[in-house]
Each structure stands twice: as C-alpha cells, then as structure tokens.
Amino acid sequence: MSPSVTDHVVGRALSWADIPRLVELEGRLFADDAWSAPTWWAELAARPRRDYVALESDGELVGYAGLDLAGEVADVMTIAVAPEAQGRGLGGELLALMASRAREAGAAYLLLEVRDDNAGAKALYARAGFEVVTVRRRYYQPGDVDALVMRLRLRDERDGVGDTNG
Ligand SMILES: CC(C)(COP(=O)(O)OP(=O)(O)OC[C@H]1O[C@@H](n2cnc3c(N)ncnc32)[C@H](O)[C@@H]1OP(=O)(O)O)[C@@H](O)C(=O)NCCC(=O)NCCS
C-alpha cells in the first residue's frame, strides 16, 4: 500500500450532494458507459434495494461502489477508484466491503459483469475469488466487447458461514 493514501475513509452512504462529483469521475473512468446525473438520481432513489458507498481521501470523494440487493443473489452495480488513487489497494477494499455488506443482507452469491477488455478489473475480481460463470458475447456496444459474468460465493454450502474476507 502506498504511503500517500493513509487517511482514507470507506463506507459512508453516497448522497445527492455527491452527484456532480460522481458524474465527473464517471466521465474520466468509463469511456463508453458513463452514468449521467439522471441515472445517479434514479440509482440513489432506488435505496434500500440499492446500497451505494463512498470512499474518501482527505475529505474528497475518490471512489465508490454499489450493490443491488435482491435476496439470495446480490449484484455489484458499479465500482470505481479515481485514476490518481488507483493501484493502492482501494478498489480491493471497496470490493471486500461490497462482499461483506451483501453477506450481511443475506445474499449467498455476489455477481458482477465486467468487460472482457478491462484487464485491471478482471484481475481485481479474480484476486478476490470471483469466477467466470458465463460470457455474454458482444454485450457491450459499440465495440462488440464480450461481458464476463463473474460470481463469488459468500456462504459456505454446508453451514452458511462466510468464506471470504471483509
Ligand atoms: C478496477 C478499479 C476499481 C481497481 O481499483 P484499484 O484501487 O486500482 O485496485 P487495487 O489497487 O485495489 O488493486 C487490487 C488488485 O486488482 C488488480 N488490479 C487492479 N488494477 C489493475 C491493473 N490496472 N492491472 C492489473 N491488475 C490490476 C491487481 O491484482 C491488484 O492487486 P495487486 O496490486 O496486489 O497486484 C479501478 O482501476 C477503476 O476504477 N477502474 C475504472 C473503472 C472500472 O473499470 N471499474 C470496474 C468496472 S467492472
């Protein structure tokens, strides 16, 4: 972990006031798939089924992640770390928090979709224990990019005890 991100805080709920900063970060992080302000309004309005958290460093929003909680299966809706804060373990921390919150909400599995050309995110998920369960061919347009559907088991099949960290 880099010594330059020592005082980060993770877990505050995202609020309406974060939307301008979220839209700015989306534009820098998701070339073809950036969420607009109306999308963020709709997503935050969909709580408590949706669960979005902030990651802050020096009081500034530098990352975020969110879940769709739907009983047995939870989905990671988004996960992102500002370019200047990447590579310091913060994405891994957000992902571990998503897994623990999904487990606390009663989910047995955590699912997500990732572009096949997103090597960094795929490595992050594989390192956290996610496995590819199916491929959606040419799912992302434009570009004909496949979507990998990845899954993490949150509970032991035998006794329901969690088998991941976080
Ligand atoms: C994907 C993302 C959230 C990772 O955040 P991060 O803070 O850089 O990730 P971390 O520093 O916690 O990395 C954790 C692990 O993920 C893997 N990883 C992360 N970024 C990587 C990259 N660019 N290349 C290769 N591996 C990478 C590594 O295995 C890393 O572990 P290591 O450092 O011990 O090798 C961040 O790059 C991001 O916001 N990208 C743009 C948005 C995006 O693509 N989100 C995912 C959509 S599905």
**Helix amount, in percent?**
25-40%
Q: What name does CATH use for the topology?
A: Aminopeptidase
Biggest sheet, open or closed, and with what strands and sense? 7 strands, mixed
Summed up, the domain count is 1
Hetero compounds: coenzyme A
Number of strands: 7
CATH class type? Alpha Beta
Provide key terms for this protein:
4 helices; seven-stranded mixed β-sheet; 7 strands; binds coenzyme A; alpha+beta; Aminopeptidase; 166 residues; single chain; 27% helix
Protein architecture, described:
Helices cover 27% and strands 36% of the residues. The protein has 166 residues and is α+β, with helices and mostly antiparallel strands. It has a single domain (9-153), classed as Aminopeptidase (3-Layer(aba) Sandwich), CATH 3.40.630. A hairpin with a 2-residue loop joins strand 3 and strand 4. The radius of gyration is 16 Å and the shape is globular. The two termini are 17 Å apart. Coenzyme A (COA) binds next to strand 4, helix 3 and helix 4.
Summarize the structure.
This protein has about 170 residues and is α+β, with helices and mostly antiparallel strands.
Task: Set down the secondary structure blueprint.
Elements: E1 9-13, H1 19-29, H2 37-45, E2 50-57, E3 60-70, E4 73-81, H3 90-104, E5 109-115, H4 119-127, E6 131-140, E7 145-153
Parallel strand pairs: 4-5
Antiparallel strand pairs: 1-2, 2-3, 3-4, 5-7, 6-7
Coenzyme A is lined by residues 29, 79-81, 86-92, 114, 118-121, 123-124, 127.
